[in-house]
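As agreed, record minuted below.
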Amino acid sequence: MHAKTQQSGLAKFEPINNTTPQRARVYLLRKIPRVWRYSPAPGVLLLPFNIVLKFSRHASLSEAHTLEFVSKNTSIPVPRVITAFESKDGLRYILMTRIPGVPLSRVFGLLSEEKQRNIMHQLRGYIDELRAIRNAEPGYVGAVNQGPLHDERVYSGPFGPFNSVPEFHKALRLGIDGNSGHAILDNMIERENMREYSCRMTHGDFAFRNIIYQGEKVTGIVDWETAGWYPDYWEYASAFYSFFDCTDLRFRIDEFLEA
């Protein structure tokens, strides 16, 4: 991959509130008896006192930095980061507040059409806020603080960042440029190079399971590990894929997100 030169410090995703008491708190929370915790996915613990602990050897602290960035620059409801750090054995931890409510995927089909339209209106407002943020480097593709992106659907490990969208596209093609000898691929490359792209702040996994709902309101948007600055089409394309668990609702993506 043709990665942008990383800036020291920020590119390494430095810890957040990495104090001895917070580290001790995290280690103790991991040992809470199973009766007081719930794990909806590997490396995720829903804990007492409305907090969530995410931990993994392969994850990145970029999600924690993204949450702080989105909270600072928009009104989008996101978890508040309590602490984020990497342990000596290479495990990365993010402790955050838990958003009240249930995943929208559980209840959307039970709601009236009016309530569904209201949800779409709320989501459209939040997406518009996110996409309205402008980066000081217009062509930059990467994480919020000049670090690599993380999306296992695209690459098995960290990738990027990139100086430009064409550089990003070339990396997606594993370095293949024009004149590959394959007509379909060469035609795709030609079409990619014919248009201009703007890079937008992107969630990258926008699906109803990652939207929290309570009392007729969207109370939170979670799971920002794939987020970053991407070409303008990426949010729609990734959302279409992310609706794999409710393909019958893909037609409604247009109600809150432009293609």
User: Anything to note?
Assistant: The longest helix spans residues 113-132. DSSP finds seven helices and ten strands in the chain. The helical segments are 20-30, 62-73, 104-107, 113-132, 165-172, 183-192, 234-242.
